[in-house]
């Protein structure tokens, strides 16, 4: 920032000295503006602006107004040149990854809100009920990788202590039920054959 200011101040000082030393009137605002713009168009002026934009403090100081940003994005997206630019940007994997990371939390919130919306749920159910989707699911279920994943998931589930306890309780309950059924049958047979 100091380089740009020093460049502008030097230009203004130079123009003032030239005007005073030659006995001429001081340059007008338009003449000063033209001189500063000419200086900024030089290679040194461009380098100075690039250096300024690399400075993190300077970037934080540049605040973009939301309506301006929104309008610019809409205009950029709707023009043919803008569409080419976006296609080019999205073809860059680094750009796509960074954009996805910045939007990830917002997309997650949006998806959670949509999942609670009955209209969206209905549309999803309609999609899932289509014969094409059902055929895709059946095809997926028949694949070896999917079956392997299911088997691994079941194995992991069966290895958990909570599941082992539930399974043991279910087996004990089933055995008790069978024992009670067997005892009741024996009792009824013994009553029939005294």
UniProtKB/TrEMBL annotation:
Tagged with keyword Phosphoprotein: no
Could you tell me the keywords of this UniProt record?
Lipoprotein, Signal
Residue span(s) of domain Spore germination GerD central core: 62-174
Q: Which residues form the signal peptide?
A: 1-20
Name listed for the protein in its UniProt record: Spore germination lipoprotein GerD
Which gene does this sequence derive from?
gerD
């Amino acid at each position: 920032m100091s380089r740009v200011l020093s460049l502008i101040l030097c230009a203004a000082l130079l123009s003032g000295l030239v005007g005073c030393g030659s006995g001429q009137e001081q340059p007008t605002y338009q003449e000063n503006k033209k001189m500063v713009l000419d200086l900024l168009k030089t290679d040194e002026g461009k380098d100075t602006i690039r250096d300024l934009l690399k400075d993190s403090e300077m970037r934080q100081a540049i605040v973009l107004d939301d309506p301006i940003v929104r309008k610019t994005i809409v205009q950029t997206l709707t023009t043919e040149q803008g569409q080419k630019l976006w296609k080019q940007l999205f073809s860059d994997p680094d750009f796509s990854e960074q954009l996805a990371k910045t939007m990830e939390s917002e997309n997650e919130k949006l998806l959670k809100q949509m999942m609670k919306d009955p209209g969206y749920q209905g549309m999803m159910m309609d999609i899932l009920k289509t014969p094409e989707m059902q055929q895709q699911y059946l095809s997926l279920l028949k694949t070896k990788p999917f079956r392997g994943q299911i088997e691994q998931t079941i194995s992991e589930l069966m290895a958990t202590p909570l599941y082992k306890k539930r399974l043991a309780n279910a087996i004990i309950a089933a055995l008790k039920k069978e024992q009670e059924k067997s005892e009741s049958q024996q009792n009824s047979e013994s009553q029939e054959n005294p």
